[in-house]
């Protein structure tokens, strides 16, 4: 079969009124676009619509796409299929005006057979309709946001996703690679053909080959199973993600009828409560990150390079596993995980049959779950990175008999499709136990209110009281989750799983080792501030195989669930939500270890230290302008309001709090060589040493000591003098196709590369050459700017631009800002197959290179 990208040549618009055609306006409003494309991210946000809060205050709407493509006469003797990897949502595909197929889910890939609707030897039109509503609890985007392809094959051909590879036998000196090849015969005659499969290693050498004949009757299909022996296999694992390629060919009488290449890895998986999760016989603890599907400044547009970059950064931050929250992961992200050694928990859905939003997928789930689940599993089959399938997230039905029956059906369908991975479900004890558990907490809340009133507080809902009650409820959670009601309500739904997924149920880890000695547990969702305690429980309990924080990467929507609000901050406007969600203009969740531009926040370095992967101390400075100001609200997903910088212009000689994260016994803090003091750190002190000092420009140094000896130090230097632009791009050569991007980071620094986080200013981007600005923005979680302006305000001294090539050639990116010398960077968009991944730093004319801003080891 010939698979070709179908991403170019599209136009889109907001879905017009049905009577537009009658009024002569059927062709108005169309804009050219290259897929993948997010139609929602381009809309103006609306802070007056409370229903839009979940998705970051972007409006819901319907969208329409169309494309004209030529179909040759000879295709009458072939099969033409259109593939859509993701259309959000309720996608309907029309070919030449007639409905060809549809998909309710916004996250499932689907195929459209177009033969019967095509006109041969002339142009054809494909049109796609999609709509987004109040249908989810986070930002979804809208439109055709993942890749599309056109697939052309002969009448006798490999089935779509028709090559399945498993590795049932793995020994030190050999491995058996089992290849199941599905062939379909849509011709009118019986055909006997030959199927060959070659296994090729990373060096291009053929290490195994097998050929076998297959007879297929007209209108029938056949599955050929071949077992190929690979000597001295290079196994796939997290640290050494070795990959092989299977080359499949279908021939008859010397004529090649079809072919396909499939990447796979040779690796084994086992799980048990004594040794946990083992890959190739070695125990692996999952250092997990929950991630949503959007790509920050790109919205939900799933362009391959953005997915790869995300995995690269997550790996650098110490994660070795991703949970796709709460929908099937993209194919591009899977390929990146295979290549880079990142494990995957792929998740089916946030709902089953009970709605969480007014128009969510619960209304379609009963009729579509089998096709949605099949789409996810078929996509994942040959990817060694996938180790767990999650059949749901925080499903209320799991605490009921009917929900347990449905969950068992889902789990068994997964096993029918793929028995080589493990099945889990992300269970929330509060939802599973239902109203009875909430009624238990009601009495506690009433008692808390009485206590607050007796102590002089107000029980009438003032901001202090809200914060107190949330804190009390948070502290009560461990006891609440270990109740007998949670135990009994979740027992049946946990029993049909290979691995029990616990959302915020870490207080049950050791209890359930006794109650359910054969149960294996994974922390599918945990609070970021609890990672030190949780990771100790993961390390100490063999039946707990890992922890997935909420979240590894910040995301659009659920705005402000990780925010910190101070007493002097303006209260939410009338109709606002002072609790779980931030009022407009909040845009991002602000709970990720990594922000939406890919910059690591302090929590990321703290986690890396807890994981035992970083020895240097890390310095996090609380904003001095907020020193000791009472916090009105810090949610369960909040981190400290801190920045790794010692540049606080305008706050000279004012008090400041400094946190130093370290696994060492003790930390000494120095300001300009003068010791502020020493404080204990390490695990007994939650890996944090805190200091109160006064901001004085110069150098801030943290020195770590263990057993009295120095084990590492980190320095921050104040930025001085003129503000300059440090401009870097992730690669100076990219591929001029629809799947590559260049990420251009802009940082405000001084001449020595020190971060100017208090000098924020408007930065302008200008492109020359064959490229477009795909997105431009900062990590500011409250920004009211859009991601397509050519001028953006930096946030804490940083902003990110994303460039997409439109043709081969040189792209020049010019960056300017008030009071700064302009900077040019050059990106070469090479024809496919010629791009190299080489980092580059842009420099102003006549000035030396600037080093990366941020903390650094010092002598």
Automatic annotation (TrEMBL):
<dbReference type="InterPro" id="IPR032311">
    <property type="entry name" value="DUF4982"/>
</dbReference>
<dbReference type="InterPro" id="IPR040605">
    <property type="entry name" value="Glyco_hydro2_dom5"/>
</dbReference>
<dbReference type="GO" id="GO:0004553">
    <property type="term" value="F:hydrolase activity, hydrolyzing O-glycosyl compounds"/>
</dbReference>
<feature type="region of interest" description="Disordered">
    <location>
        <begin position="837"/>
        <end position="859"/>
    </location>
</feature>
<dbReference type="GO" id="GO:0005975">
    <property type="term" value="P:carbohydrate metabolic process"/>
</dbReference>
<keyword id="KW-0378">Hydrolase</keyword>
<dbReference type="InterPro" id="IPR008979">
    <property type="entry name" value="Galactose-bd-like_sf"/>
</dbReference>
<dbReference type="Pfam" id="PF16355">
    <property type="entry name" value="DUF4982"/>
</dbReference>
<feature type="domain" description="Glycoside hydrolase family 2 immunoglobulin-like beta-sandwich">
    <location>
        <begin position="161"/>
        <end position="267"/>
    </location>
</feature>
<keyword id="KW-0326">Glycosidase</keyword>
<dbReference type="Pfam" id="PF00703">
    <property type="entry name" value="Glyco_hydro_2"/>
</dbReference>
<dbReference type="InterPro" id="IPR008964">
    <property type="entry name" value="Invasin/intimin_cell_adhesion"/>
</dbReference>
<dbReference type="Pfam" id="PF02836">
    <property type="entry name" value="Glyco_hydro_2_C"/>
</dbReference>
<dbReference type="Pfam" id="PF18565">
    <property type="entry name" value="Glyco_hydro2_C5"/>
</dbReference>
<feature type="domain" description="Glycoside hydrolase family 2 catalytic">
    <location>
        <begin position="277"/>
        <end position="426"/>
    </location>
</feature>
<feature type="region of interest" description="Disordered">
    <location>
        <begin position="443"/>
        <end position="464"/>
    </location>
</feature>
<comment type="similarity">
    <text>Belongs to the glycosyl hydrolase 2 family.</text>
</comment>
<dbReference type="InterPro" id="IPR036156">
    <property type="entry name" value="Beta-gal/glucu_dom_sf"/>
</dbReference>
<feature type="domain" description="DUF4982">
    <location>
        <begin position="655"/>
        <end position="710"/>
    </location>
</feature>
<dbReference type="InterPro" id="IPR006103">
    <property type="entry name" value="Glyco_hydro_2_cat"/>
</dbReference>
<dbReference type="InterPro" id="IPR013783">
    <property type="entry name" value="Ig-like_fold"/>
</dbReference>
<dbReference type="InterPro" id="IPR017853">
    <property type="entry name" value="GH"/>
</dbReference>
<dbReference type="InterPro" id="IPR051913">
    <property type="entry name" value="GH2_Domain-Containing"/>
</dbReference>
<feature type="domain" description="Glycoside hydrolase family 2">
    <location>
        <begin position="725"/>
        <end position="825"/>
    </location>
</feature>
<protein>
    <submittedName>
        <fullName>Glycosyl hydrolases family 2, sugar binding domain</fullName>
    </submittedName>
</protein>
<dbReference type="InterPro" id="IPR006102">
    <property type="entry name" value="Ig-like_GH2"/>
</dbReference>
<dbReference type="InterPro" id="IPR006101">
    <property type="entry name" value="Glyco_hydro_2"/>
</dbReference>
């Amino acid at each position: 079969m010939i698979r070709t990208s179908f991403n170019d040549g599209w136009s889109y618009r907001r879905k017009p009124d049905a009577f537009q055609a009658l009024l002569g306006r059927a062709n108005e409003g169309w804009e050219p676009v290259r897929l993948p494309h997010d139609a929602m991210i381009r809309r103006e946000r609306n802070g007056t619509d409370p229903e839009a809060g979940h998705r970051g205050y972007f409006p819901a709407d319907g969208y329409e796409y169309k494309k004209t493509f030529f179909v040759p006469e000879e295709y009458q003797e072939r099969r033409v299929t259109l593939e859509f990897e993701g259309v959000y949502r309720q996608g309907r595909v029309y070919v030449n005006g007639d409905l060809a197929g549809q998909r309710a889910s916004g996250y499932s890939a689907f195929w459209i057979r177009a033969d019967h609707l095509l006109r041969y030897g002339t142009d054809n039109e494909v049109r796609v309709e999609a709509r987004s509503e109040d249908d989810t609890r986070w930002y979804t985007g809208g439109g055709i946001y993942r890749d599309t392809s056109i697939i052309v094959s002969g009448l006798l051909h490999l089935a779509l996703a028709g090559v399945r590879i498993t590795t049932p036998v793995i020994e030190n000196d050999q491995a058996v690679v089992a290849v199941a090849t599905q062939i379909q015969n849509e011709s009118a005659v019986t055909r006997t053909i030959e199927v060959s499969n070659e296994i090729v290693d990373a060096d291009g050498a053929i290490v195994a080959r097998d050929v076998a004949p297959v007879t297929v009757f007209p209108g029938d299909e056949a599955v050929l199973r071949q077992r190929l022996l690979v000597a001295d296999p290079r196994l796939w694992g997290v640290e050494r993600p070795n990959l092989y390629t299977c080359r499949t060919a279908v021939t008859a009488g010397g004529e090649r009828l079809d072919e396909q290449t499939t990447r796979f890895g040779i690796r084994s998986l086992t799980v048990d409560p004594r040794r946990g999760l083992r890959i190739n016989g070695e125990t692996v603890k999952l250092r997990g990150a929950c991630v949503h599907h959007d790509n920050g400044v790109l919205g939900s547009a799933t362009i391959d390079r953005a997915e790869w970059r995300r995995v690269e950064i997550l790996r650098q931050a110490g994660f070795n596993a991703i949970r796709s929250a709460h929908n099937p992961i993209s194919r591009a992200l899977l390929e990146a995980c295979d290549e880079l050694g990142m494990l995957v928990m792929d998740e089916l859905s946030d709902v089953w049959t009970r709605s969480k939003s007014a128009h969510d997928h619960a209304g379609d789930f009963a009729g579509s779950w089998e096709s949605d689940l099949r789409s996810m599993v078929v996509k994942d089959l040959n990817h060694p990175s996938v180790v767990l399938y999650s059949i749901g997230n925080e499903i209320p039905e799991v605490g009921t008999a009917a929900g347990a029956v449905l969950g068992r059906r889902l789990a068994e369908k997964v096993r029918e499709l793929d028995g080589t991975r493990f099945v889990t479900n992300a269970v929330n004890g509060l939802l599973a136990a239902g109203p009875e558990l909430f009624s238990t907490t009601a009495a506690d809340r009433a008692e808390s209110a009485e206590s607050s009133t007796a102590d002089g507080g107000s029980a009438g809902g003032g901001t202090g009281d809200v914060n107190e009650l949330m804190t009390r409820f948070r502290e009560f959670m461990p006891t609440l989750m270990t109740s007998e009601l949670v135990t009994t309500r979740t027992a049946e739904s946990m029993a049909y799983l290979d691995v029990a997924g616990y959302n915020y149920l870490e207080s049950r880890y050791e209890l359930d080792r006794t109650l359910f000695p054969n149960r294996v547990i994974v922390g599918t969702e945990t609070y970021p501030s609890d990672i030190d305690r949780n990771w100790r429980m993961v390390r100490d309990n063999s039946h707990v195989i890992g922890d997935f924080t909420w979240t590894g990467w910040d995301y659009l929507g659920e705005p402000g669930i990780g925010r910190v609000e101070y007493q002097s901050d303006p209260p939410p406007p009338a109709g606002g939500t002072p609790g779980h969600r931030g009022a407009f203009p909040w845009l991002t969740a602000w709970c990720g270890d990594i922000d939406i531009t890919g910059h690591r926040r302090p929590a990321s370095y703290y986690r890396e230290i807890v994981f035992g992967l970083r020895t240097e101390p890390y310095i996090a400075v609380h904003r001095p302008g907020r020193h000791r100001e009472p916090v009105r609200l810090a949610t369960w997903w909040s981190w400290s309001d801190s920045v790794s910088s010692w540049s606080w212009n305008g706050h000279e000689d004012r008090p400041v709090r400094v946190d130093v994260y370290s696994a060492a016994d003790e930390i000494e803090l120095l300001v300009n060589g003068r010791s502020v003091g020493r404080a204990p750190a390490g695990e007994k002190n939650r890996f944090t040493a805190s200091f109160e000092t006064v901001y004085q420009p110069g150098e801030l140094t943290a020195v770590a000591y263990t057993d009295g000896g120095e084990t590492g130090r980190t320095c921050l230097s104040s930025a001085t003098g003129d503000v300059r632009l440090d401009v870097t791009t992730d690669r100076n050569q990219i591929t001029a196709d629809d799947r590559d991007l260049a990420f251009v980071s802009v940082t405000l620094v001084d001449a020595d590369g020190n971060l100017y986080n208090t000098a924020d200013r408007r930065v302008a981007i200008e492109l020359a050459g064959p490229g477009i600005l795909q997105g431009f923005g900062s990590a500011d979680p409250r920004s009211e700017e859009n991601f397509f302006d050519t001028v953006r305000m930096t946030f804490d001294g940083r902003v990110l631009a994303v460039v997409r090539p439109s043709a081969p050639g040189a792209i020049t990116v010019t960056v300017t800002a008030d009071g700064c010398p302009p900077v040019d960077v050059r990106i070469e968009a090479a024809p496919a197959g010629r791009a190299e991944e080489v980092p580059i730093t842009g420099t102003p004319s006549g000035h030396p290179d600037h080093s990366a801003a941020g903390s650094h080891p010092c002598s």
